[in-house]
Design brief:
Helix 4 links the parallel strand 2 and strand 3. The two termini are 24 Å apart. The chain is an alpha/beta fold. Helix 1 packs antiparallel against helix 8 and helix 5 packs parallel to helix 6. The protein binds pyridoxal-5'-phosphate. Pyridoxal-5'-phosphate binds next to helix 3.
Length: 374
């Protein structure tokens, strides 16, 4: 039996243990601690951000971003339609109302035209959450211009795009607040974790306060505000420090995987790789494809066949406007069939594991080409 070719597994480099050992040796096996401080500094330096708060997850970071913007009961928040549910669930935690914005074909990210249309329909919107899907940056030149014109802040969900750049600038810094995820399946991991990025130190301070149960500065346990247990642990931050040492390597490995797919599958008239606009560099966290009209086999059939060969694939994110939980929410598109619904019906994520060998990737491509050209 051939071994499993995974979608994308955590890839450890060996240096993580050093930081964890240090935490054990100094008995810093607690939330907060020196690894957390250092991880925040190293992340800030990598992204070119002034302030970072390390948290327990990307979801927690989105939740605190919304709180920092004062989002509450009944407020409208625009959100990329094609994403993981973690992007918009925190809108519901605050009893606010998401309105989903369709994708555009060039990047699969939030469509600037649909965003403009949504602003006309909902002039009272309070915030816009923009996702960089599969590591490809959204069109921040146009999106920022629109949001600035309406004076509405952006939360950049860069959970999938650490290491990607738009016009030379690292993602995570395009919104008023940016968030990252270090979940096990992301380009680097802390086993579980996230971060909040902001140029305003007071917002980082407030986020750290909320994330440690909103404890007032008093000897006794006193709370004037609702608190959360959202801080990153010193052990997790140790893994993150080790992982940062090979982030650039992971980006180049993932980019190599994408280029190889483009070379081996790009010649197939029925296959298009996920597009990356020329003014950005994606981290290529996951390589994806869509099947063109007339393709004799569906994406689901390809996924089923590859599964038989122990090759892991995934459908593209099922749009939030198609999710039962969000069925009563509005979505805005400039096409009759939303672009993200179309992408979802024709697309899939390919194995993008950095430990996949060239011959394993060749095998994946041969199988896909054979299935299509039968
Ligand atoms: C993974 C992910 C998140 C959530 O991050 P967690 O650390 O798992 O909470 C949010 N948004 C997107 C787009 C993601 O892919």
């Amino acid at each position: 039996m051939s071994k499993v070719i995974p979608l994308s597994n955590p890839a450890l480099n060996g240096t993580e243990m050093m930081y964890i050992q240090e935490a054990f040796d100094t008995n810093w096996v607690a939330p907060i601690g020196p690894n957390v401080d250092e991880f925040e500094k190293e992340l800030a330096a990598y992204i070119g951000a002034s302030h970072v708060a390390a948290l327990s997850s990307g979801t927690a970071a989105i939740h605190l971003s919304l709180k920092a913007l004062g989002i509450s009961n009944g407020d409208i928040v625009f959100c990329s339609d094609m994403t993981f549910a973690a992007t918009c669930n925190p809108i519901k935690y605050e009893r606010a109302t998401p309105v989903f914005i369709d994708s555009e074909p060039d990047s699969w990210n939030m469509c600037p035209e649909a965003l403009e249309l949504a602003f006309k329909k909902y002039p009272d919107v309070k915030a816009v959450i923009v996702v960089n899907l599969y590591g490809t940056p959204a069109k921040f030149d146009q999106i920022t211009e629109i949001c600035d014109r309406y004076n509405v802040p952006i939360i950049e969900d860069a959970a999938e795009s650490l290491g990607s750049t738009f016009e030379g600038k690292q993602t995570g810094r395009f919104g008023y607040i940016g968030i990252l995820s270090f979940n096990g399946n992301k380009i680097i991991t802390t086993s579980g974790g996230g971060a909040l990025i902001c140029a305003h130190e007071d917002i980082i301070k407030k986020s750290k306060f909320w994330s440690t149960q909103s404890r007032d500065p008093a000897r006794h346990y006193q709370h004037s505000e609702l608190g959360y247990n959202y801080r990153m642990s010193n052990i997790c931050a140790g893994i993150g420090r080790g992982q940062l040492n090979t982030l650039d390597l992971r980006v180049s490995q993932k980019t190599g995987i994408y280029s190889r797919y483009a070379a081996l599958l790009g010649g197939n008239e029925f296959i298009r790789m996920n597009p990356v606009p020329s003014n950005c560099k994606a981290n290529h966290w996951l390589s994806c494809l869509t099947l063109e009209n007339g393709c004799p086999i569906t994406a689901v059939e390809i996924m089923e066949q590859l599964e038989q060969e122990r090759i892991e694939t995934r459908p593209l994110w099922k749009p939030m406007s198609l999710q039962p939980f969000y069925a009563d929410c509005d979505s805005v598109s400039v096409t009759t069939i939303p672009v993200c619904h179309d992408l979802f019906s024709r697309g899939m994520c390919l194995p993008s594991d950095v430990n996949m060998t060239a011959s394993e990737q060749d095998r994946v491509c041969e199988l896909i080409n054979k299935l299509i050209n039968r």
